[in-house]
TrEMBL record:
This is Response regulator transcription factor. It holds the Pfam family GerE. Residues 4-122 form the Response regulatory domain. The keyword Repressor does not apply. InterPro entries: CheY-like_superfamily (IPR011006), NreC/VraR/RcsB-like_REC (IPR058245), Sig_transdc_resp-reg_C-effctor (IPR016032), Sig_transdc_resp-reg_receiver (IPR001789), Tscrpt_reg_LuxR_C (IPR000792), WalR-like (IPR039420). Residues 151-216 form the HTH luxR-type domain.
Length: 225
């Protein structure tokens, strides 16, 4: 089954470019387009895409609010949202991740990265470019805890190994990279990540990364995280 993709961007030329890239792939099918957030909501309900490629800054309804409604508790389908941004230090990206996006990608990313990001998000994983993620969190460090606040009670439900895994997820490492770092199998890492999400009541790795920073478990800019 091909991955069903909805393109959401207020610039028709960009949508055309993305469509050309994606339609060259046998496992990806572009099922529709939208020029703003409101159109995106209608298209998601009508077309039931697997992945929504979402611009952030659009008229009528921006990508953050559209993402919140698409991925929220009242959502109409299983769509995952992959946010597109022109700037790698866009404050709206953090808001989109909090709203429920499964990851983000720069609009000028190479074609193969765009395709791979869609495959990763469709499979249920998060698309977090580690370097960009760290720069984003570092930039907005003043909005995050200093690390001196009390640790949330929910964090105490995790085992020591699960805390280790959460810290590495927050750094943007993939399952394979975490496995190599901890000298365990990828299957073991997936199990740990699943336990972390279940115990903390989080939807995916993106929420886990945000939680790790907001709880003070990981401090922006700190080395040896």
């Amino acid at each position: 089954m091909a991955i069903r993709v909805l393109l959401v961007d207020d610039q028709p030329l960009l949508r055309t470019g993305f469509r050309m890239i994606l339609e060259a792939e046998q496992d990806v099918a572009v099922v529709g387009e939208a020029g703003d957030g409101l159109q995106a909501l209608d298209q998601v309900r009508a077309l039931q895409p697997d992945v929504v490629l979402m611009d952030i800054r659009m008229p009528r309804m921006d990508g953050v609010e559209a993402t919140r409604q698409i991925t929220g508790p009242e959502r109409d389908g299983p769509a995952k949202v992959l946010v597109l941004t022109t700037f790698d230090l866009d404050e709206y990206v953090v808001e989109a991740l909090r709203a429920g996006a499964s990851g983000f990608l720069l609009k000028d990313a190479p074609a193969h990265e765009l395709v791979q990001a869609i495959r990763v998000v469709a499979s249920g994983e998060a698309m977090l470019a580690p370097s960009v993620t760290r720069r984003l969190l570092d930039k907005y460090a003043e909005h995050l805890p200093s690390g001196e606040e009390p640790v949330p009670d929910t964090l105490h439900t995790l085992t020591d190994r699960e805390v280790e895994v959460l810290k590495l997820v927050a750094r943007g490492l993939s399952n394979a990279e975490i496995a190599a770092d901890l000298f365990v199998s990828e299957t073991t890492v997936k199990t740990h990540v699943g336990h972390v999400l279940n115990k903390l009541g989080l939807r995916d790795r993106v929420q886990a990364a945000v939680y790790a920073y907001e709880s003070g478990l990981v401090r922006p800019g700190a080395s040896g995280q």
